[in-house]
Please model this.
Amino acid sequence: MNRKAPVAQRARQLALALESMDEYNGDDTAWLSPHEETQRLLETRRVEREQLNYSVPEALQLKQRLNAYDIENRTPGVGNLVAGILDSWLRAHGYPPDPERLKR
Model:
């Protein structure tokens, strides 16, 4: 009987993915704005953080450009900017975060 639990869990995940994609359907620029749940999380102090390390083409000068943007626009930090953009992009493509984890 335990075998049904993973199937039900996966069905819930797929339903969340479809809902997430529907939020952005028809609006090509909607994913450029952070989701309201993500915005609340990023504005919360003392949120647990983890390091995100990916190798990116050096020629794009992403670190330098992000730091320059951060300084010129007084954003709440490069980490929050990257998190918001990646989260929005993933949600738009049907990969939302687990809502239970956002409530912590």
Notes: The chain has a mean pLDDT of 83. The longest helix spans residues 4-24.
